[in-house]
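User: Sequence in, structure out. Go.
Assistant: Echoing your sequence, followed by the structure tokens.
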Amino acid sequence: MKSICILGAGRGGITLAELLKKEEGSLDITVIDKKSYFFDKNYFFPLLFNKEKEKVINLNEFFSNVGINFINKEVERVSFSKKNLYFKDKSTMGFKNLIVCTGLISQELSIKGEHREGFFYMSEIDPLSFRNYIKIASDFVIFASTILGVRLAFCLSFFNKEIKLISNSLDFLGRKKEEVISILKRRNIDIYENAEITEVIGNSIVKATKISLPKVFSSNVVVVDTHLLPNLKILETSLKEGELPPQVMLLGDVARKNIEKEYFFIFNSINVYREAKALAEKITERGEGYFFPKVYTLQDIESFLDEEFNEKKVLSWIS
């Protein structure tokens, strides 16, 4: 390979680009992302409190310093047959070799009124801009299918907001379920299990939320945390096994099978880094490209829950 285009400047894309440039300085590497900055997902919740700001990477500066091309644009479509990228601004760009590392996206539901301002799917939330909603909104409704929605409700409670946590089931919390629910209730979070959001009410902005019990809540912000899926919507194919052309590869969470069964995402960043390192070795012919993902145990889950629902930890972000 003489030139490589990397679609997505997340943990996988950044790691792969940096390692490839280090090992093969002559490679022409271009990274594309619609965002101009990156932060590891482990810093998502501290950033809601304006903490760990130094961990946010300016992508233009970062890639410029290591001699890698960076294009700050949104890709709307990838054509394998034409080897073209089609950008939202109507421009196009060809590619010879493409690494797709576009991560995960929330599974969309059919919720009446979800077009209103103040409605978010969990994967859409950027903590740096979401802080603006935290400043002005008083009532939040969170639908949780994974630990992400539950953690968001917990963190928002420290801003003295009215929080309603809706879920089909919190049984995925396992033996820690009652303990976590007790902590949430102590934070004055109202919890409604065996329920789902049926309608978001308002004019152009969210004003209320209807759930299936049935109940209606005043709300300024609604966040829907559904199960996450590989973000493949910009690709021209359904990506059945063996369908990818040889000049295209998937890296990271976008390549994960059965991700919709994931609830905790404990080692995602670690595994994406390991996979990117292995792929860099394969491309530069310094290895076979194999890696062994870190798999968490029940003990890992329970330790993770103990840490993430520790009130002292969140209070340290406020001070």
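User: And one key feature?
Assistant: Residues 3-104+229-297 form a domain with the FAD/NAD(P)-binding domain fold (CATH 3.50.50.60).
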